[in-house]
């Protein structure tokens, strides 16, 4: 029998038949499971959709719910009980079990043992604000139940003479709520009753300090009287507990590190938490200390090494923390003390006293029951050391940390979509560094979120705190990084500075371009100033706050211009080598490299745009990358830079100027600036002809042909280029030509020849591993099979195109594939699937902001609106269509015909404006004939239905329409749209 267990107290885990499937499920599905299990009754689909996707329309939210459930089916099976209206669940939930056990006196202890922390601790949905409010209310309710039950049960344990269990329980509860006076009082009295006056007085001092720091208050009179009574009572010798640092703030995120460290501590003698400054090593170690202090017979001792300045001071500091008196031989003294103890010894901030690691090595051999947990910005490099590299917070954890700290500052803080976006921008800039996020949140006391974001873009000096109870090294982010910087050698500092010109990471090979001191890279990695990445190619990177600090030091050194010029020269070699490999090598590898260097490309081009004496380097990079950008559909960045370079290109060598003009034409064409693209590429073509570079003449002719409006002329030109490519055995040119030739043949209804050409091109691409073109071929072959009536093959090819585009990150073809799937779904009546595909495409279309995909997206949105009789929504969709129509782009012709024909069909179906529709249909037929294009099957149905409504009474209007230009037809169509709305 399938059993679903959901853990929510102290963190979220979903277990299916004992197997942890948390990582396999979408966040929103986990939230759904918990919500349903907590309520114990089914909930309506509409309510759940609105709760979890509040920023979407009702239809979008409903679809998102359905998609999320579908994606989770392989992991959940039939655990969700769904019908058309409701969703329910049968699951064991620890929060529910906790409340059940509290109802019976005999099971209260079992209930309290279930409560390992706050309800859904560190769980964050991201944008479901109402859900978050529910989660917060449930947390407060369960926490109060736990606290009240704890205080009551402590009395029960005292009554049956079980003081040690009562002390453990009180400490556990205070770990979650240190300001609870009733629990503080209970713990002090428990120590007193147990005869441990020292621990009782220490607990009073801890509470008093905490109360003063947080609220500016003293303990109440009764507690002060108890403290005086304790001071007067006789000292009873006993083993005291080691004091732990007070947890002044809630612990956010890090669920996996906590579990991982727990396992490591159980199985290893020396564990080092290694990370850069400000990454949260100390806070994580403190949290582990509280969680594990009852797991070791002799407790947990926390030693702060941050204030000492020399390795010789480490031993005395540890001895003092252990409660040992001064001794002339502290190593022998502490070794004797530790050798028979079973305890966890935490040494915090070891990096600046790393020479004292021999002390830890000595104890590893002479204190076998002691576990050492070290926090350091670099490993100790001892035999037997297990290094746990603490990663930055995820973006989701970063949001949650910022929200938590913001709530502590502003009790009336309220989340909105605007606030979410502002915090997202701040957290993305801070790269998941907890200290930076904490300092930014502190700024919210006196600054708006917009001001914080703007300030961060100017200087990280914004990230500083005036809180007196923060360590000095953590009061500004610069001071935190400088702590590590001060430990570097001069050669390491120079390399650290120069590496800051990279953005988004770099390869080891790229390091050599900037500095001869490449041997110093690994020490920077070991000190956690540089991070190794193991995704894609082997790369290195810096967290953004660290990179900004390094760049600040680079500017101070006077070496900035030299480093930026070296970076630009490296990028030039990379770009031109990528262009060369594009025609002879596996595309996927080149695309991966280009994507990895996107930030480096952007920053280098921005720099070169300001350097008049480096115009040739600037132009060569733009030209080389334009080939790849063209097929990746990256347009805004190259257009901006191409436009600047072309304006100054008069004195460039002729071949560079030609390449720049053709490259600039790619991005202009992608943005819909077809006249400008034609101007630039025709100018480039003339220059190539002038210098006799026939290879580039043929390629430029191919790009120019893509804007030919007349299908017959386009077919003739492409057929000629195909012969040239076959004769010269230029497979790269052939693979490009065959795409456009196959599509154009399909437009004129030459389906069989279109398939032959497309299949030939696909075979060429597969043989040469031209991966960028393969999903494009799949998409167009899908259209050819669709036109031939083979819907099954068409679906398979489109799905292949979509999956491959998604895997390759080709968002343009991914969006087109989804929109073509909409068309297929419409043709066979699968409207629910059409809605799902259209929703999936929406984000891609908005991000691309390209006329063709935008037009096609709004066409299907308009179709859906018309089916529901929603004229305003139909009007809005068609307004967007008309805004994105470009008559000088032959690739858009089919979409123009589609959109106008459906407008006519929908209007005639309403029985309205039949004269206008007849005129439009005449103009549309004439436009189609001029392009030598044919109507597809569903288009024929629309046209036949329109003609049926228009009968012979409207023949004169139809004939009049045939004399109109397509520009006039579009103007009339916009007027008809306005009439529909009225």
List strands and helices in order, with pairings.
Elements: E1 4-7, E2 13-16, E3 19-20, H1 27-39, E4 43-44, H2 45-52, H3 58-76, E5 80-82, E6 86-89, E7 92-93, H4 94-102, H5 108-114, H6 129-159, H7 163-176, H8 181-193, H9 197-215, H10 221-232, H11 255-267, E8 270-274, H12 281-292, E9 300-304, H13 314-321, H14 330-338, E10 343-348, H15 357-366, E11 370-376, E12 385-389, H16 395-409, H17 417-430, H18 434-442, H19 449-458, H20 477-485, H21 490-499, H22 508-514, H23 521-526, E13 531-533, E14 539-541, H24 544-557, H25 560-582, H26 587-596, H27 598-608, H28 615-632, H29 636-647, H30 654-670, H31 674-691, H32 694-705, H33 711-728, H34 731-747, H35 751-768, H36 774-787, H37 791-808, H38 811-828, H39 831-848, H40 851-867, H41 871-883, H42 893-910, H43 914-930, H44 937-950, H45 955-962, H46 966-981
Parallel strand pairs: 1-7, 8-11, 8-12, 9-10, 10-11
Antiparallel strand pairs: 1-2, 2-3, 4-6, 5-6, 13-14
């Amino acid at each position: 029998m399938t059993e679903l267990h959901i853990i929510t107290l102290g963190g979220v885990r979903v277990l299916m038949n004992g197997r942890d499937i948390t990582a396999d499920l979408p966040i929103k599905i986990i939230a759904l499971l918990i919500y349903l299990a907590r309520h114990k009754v089914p909930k309506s689909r509409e309510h759940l959709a609105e709760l979890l996707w509040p920023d979407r329309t009702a239809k979008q939210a409903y679809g998102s719910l359905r998609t999320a459930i579908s994606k989770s089916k392989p992991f959940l099976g039939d655990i969700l009980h769904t019908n058309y209206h409701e969703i329910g669940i049968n699951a064991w939930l620890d929060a529910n079990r906790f409340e059940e056990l509290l109802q019976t006196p005999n099971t209260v202890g079992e209930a309290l043992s279930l409560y390992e922390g706050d309800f859904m601790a560190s769980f964050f949905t991201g944008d479901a604000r109402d859900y978050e409010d529910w989660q917060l209310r449930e947390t407060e309710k369960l926490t109060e139940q736990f606290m009240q039950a704890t205080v009551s049960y402590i009395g029960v344990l005292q009554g049956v003479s079980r003081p040690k269990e009562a002390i453990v329980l009180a400490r556990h509860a205070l770990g979650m709520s240190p300001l609870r006076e009733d629990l503080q009082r209970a713990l002090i009295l428990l120590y007193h009753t147990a005869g441990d006056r020292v621990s009782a007085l220490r607990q009073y001092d801890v509470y008093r300090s905490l109360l003063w720091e947080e609220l500016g208050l003293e303990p109440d009179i009764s507690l002060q009287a108890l403290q005086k009574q304790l001071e007067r009572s006789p000292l009873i010798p006993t083993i005291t507990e080691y004091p732990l640092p007070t947890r002044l703030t809630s612990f956010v995120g890090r669920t996996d590190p906590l579990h991982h460290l727990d396992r490591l501590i159980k199985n290893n003698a020396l564990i080092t938490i290694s990370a850069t400054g400000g990454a949260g090593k100390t806070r994580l170690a403190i949290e582990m200390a509280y969680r594990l202090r009852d797991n070791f017979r002799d407790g947990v001792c926390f030693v702060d090494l941050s204030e000492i300045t020399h390795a010789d001071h480490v031993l005395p500091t540890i001895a003092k923390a252990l409660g040992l008196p001064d001794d002339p031989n502290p190593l022998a003294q502490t070794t004797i003390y530790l050798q028979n103890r079973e305890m966890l010894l935490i040494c915090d901030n070891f990096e600046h006293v790393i020479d004292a690691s021999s002390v830890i090595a000595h104890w590893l051999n002479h204190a076998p029951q002691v576990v050492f947990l070290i926090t350091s910005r670099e490993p100790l490099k001892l035999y037997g050391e297990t290094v746990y590299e603490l990663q930055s917070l995820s973006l989701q954890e970063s949001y949650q940390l910022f929200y938590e700290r913001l709530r502590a500052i502003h009790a009336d803080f309220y989340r909105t979509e605007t606030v979410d976006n502002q915090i997202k921008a701040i957290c993305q800039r801070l790269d998941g560094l907890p200290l930076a996020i904490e300092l930014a949140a502190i700024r919210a006391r006196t600054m708006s979120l917009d001001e914080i974001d703007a300030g961060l873009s100017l200087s990280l000096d914004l990230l500083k705190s005036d809180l007196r109870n923060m360590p000095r090294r953590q009061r500004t982010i610069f001071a935190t990084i400088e702590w590590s910087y001060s430990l570097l050698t001069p050669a390491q500092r120079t390399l650290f500075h120069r590496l800051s010109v990279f953005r988004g990471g770099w390869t080891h090979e790229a390091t050599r371009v900037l500095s001869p001191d490449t041997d110093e890279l690994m020490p920077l990695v070991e000190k956690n100033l540089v991070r190794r990445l193991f995704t894609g190619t082997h790369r290195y990177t810096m967290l953004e706050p660290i990179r900004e600090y390094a760049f600040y030091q680079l500017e101070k050194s006077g070496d900035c211009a030299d480093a930026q010029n070296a970076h630009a020269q490296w990028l030039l070699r990379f770009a031109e080598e990528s262009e060369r490999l594009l025609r002879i090598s596996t595309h996927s590898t080149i695309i991966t490299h280009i994507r990895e260097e996107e930030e480096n490309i952007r920053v280098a081009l921005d720099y070169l745009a300001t350097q008049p004496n480096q115009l040739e380097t600037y132009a060569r990079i733009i030209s080389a990358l334009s080939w790849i950008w063209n097929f990746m559909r990256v347009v805004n960045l190259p257009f901006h830079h191409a436009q600047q370079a072309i304006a100054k290109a008069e004195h460039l060598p002729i071949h560079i100027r030609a390449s720049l003009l053709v490259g600039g034409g790619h991005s202009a064409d992608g943005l819909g600036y077809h006249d400008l693209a034609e101007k630039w590429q025709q100018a480039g073509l003339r220059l190539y002809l002038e210098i006799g570079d026939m290879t580039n003449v043929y390629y430029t002719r191919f790009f120019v042909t893509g804007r030919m409006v007349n299908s017959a002329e386009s077919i003739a030109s492409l057929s000629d280029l195909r012969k040239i490519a076959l004769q010269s055995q230029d497979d790269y040119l052939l693979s490009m030509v065959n795409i456009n030739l196959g599509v154009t043949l399909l437009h004129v209804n030459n389906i069989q020849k279109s398939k032959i050409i497309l299949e030939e091109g696909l075979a060429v691409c597969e043989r040469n591993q031209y991966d960028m073109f393969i999903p494009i071929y799949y998409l167009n072959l899908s259209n050819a099979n669709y036109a031939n009536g083979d819907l099954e093959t068409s679906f398979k090819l489109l799905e292949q195109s979509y999956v491959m585009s998604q895997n390759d990150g080709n968002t343009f073809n991914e969006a087109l594939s989804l929109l073509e799937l909409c068309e297929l779904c419409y043709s066979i009546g699968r409207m629910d699937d059409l809605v799902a595909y259209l929703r999936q495409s929406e984000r891609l279309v908005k991000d691309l902001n390209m006329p063709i995909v935008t037009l096609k997206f709004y066409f299907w949105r308009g179709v859906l609106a018309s089916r529901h009789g929603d004229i305003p929504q139909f009007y809005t969709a068609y307004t967007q269509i008309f805004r994105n129509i470009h008559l000088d782009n032959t690739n858009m012709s089919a979409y123009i015909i589609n959109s106008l024909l459906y407008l006519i069909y929908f209007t005639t179906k309403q029985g309205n404006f039949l004269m206008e529709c007849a005129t439009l249909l005449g103009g549309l037929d004439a436009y189609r004939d001029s392009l030598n294009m044919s109507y597809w099957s569903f288009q024929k149905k629309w046209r036949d239905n329109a003609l049926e409504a228009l009968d012979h009474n409207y023949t004169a209007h139809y004939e009049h329409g045939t004399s109109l230009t397509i520009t006039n037809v579009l103007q009339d169509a916009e007027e008809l749209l306005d009439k529909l709305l009225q």
